[in-house]
Give the backbone structure.
Amino acid sequence: MPLNEKVTLGEYLQDARKAKAISIDEIVRETNISKKYLESLEMNDLSVFPGETYLMGFLATYADTLELDRNTVISIYKRQMRIEQDAPIEQLVGTSQKKSRLPQVDLKSVGIIGGVLGALLLLILIISNIRVPSGGNNPIPHSNKSYTYNLTDLDKITKQEYGLGDMIYISNGTSLIHMELKELGASKSLQIAVNKMNYTIKERDVLNIDSDGNSIKDMGVELTRITDGKIYISVFILKEDVTDKTNISEGTIQKYKSAVIAENELLSSKIKTKIDMKIVADATGWMEYSADGSEPKQFVLKKGMEVPIEFQNEMTLLLGNAGAVKVVIGDKTEPGGSFGEINKSIFYWKNNQGQFSLNRAFLK
């Protein structure tokens, strides 16, 4: 369908659906995506999605169902995100888009005018405190904002977008935990300070820290992602000291220990062996996985599609519309989850007094 420069993402999707005389309920049956998420897309309410990764997967699935060009849909989304951000410098200095004929001036006048404009732009940059770190294709500006949360509202931290220099205060009723997002490092890492103690955390990694100075690691901080000039993090309280000895094997599961809500044993063995797994799609869905710490891989799934996965120690799996897939290991089949559900789980080897078991741990 023709693209209007001013159309929003929700309007574009809704107009395309109505042009084909398709109801929301029909899209739900076709894609197995929860009605809540489809309606939110059409209402431009993107806050219900737990992260941009999930959102992009749903957009691709919705575009395919309506026979729309994925790239067009994604470009509308990115354009909309840019519009919702702060006005660019060109607007701050009042640059006009209208063309006009300028009188001829001599080179000296041009130099004076250029110097004045350059000084003006420099002054605006200084006032706005816009600093660009070296390296990276998507520089993150210093926004220097402050956010305050209660210890019971940590889920709100996950939904917020942050910039460098931002201060996060977490109140536990008697004192404040102070966190500062300082500078970007190499390989998508972030330097943070918690109560003036400096740490470095990598993207998709979890840092367990001592937030109150009692030598016990009581707080977990996850750098969810760095993308499109924004920082996304999550914070959770550890239920117990993660330095305590446990019979769980080392690996990613240690980082998420307090976030485990359920766990299944899939198979047992006297030794840890390489796992050959398949994700089999029975309907439309979306997935992302990382095997043994490798770079995450993403797929939009369609009925009949199979994704082979190999790992030696651990594998992290994110599923959108989890009921649309089955996890197959040898002759054993495990359901991905429920239809319309978004879930995250970790497959890892657990050492039970010399006997190993492959477990799947579901996370909050």
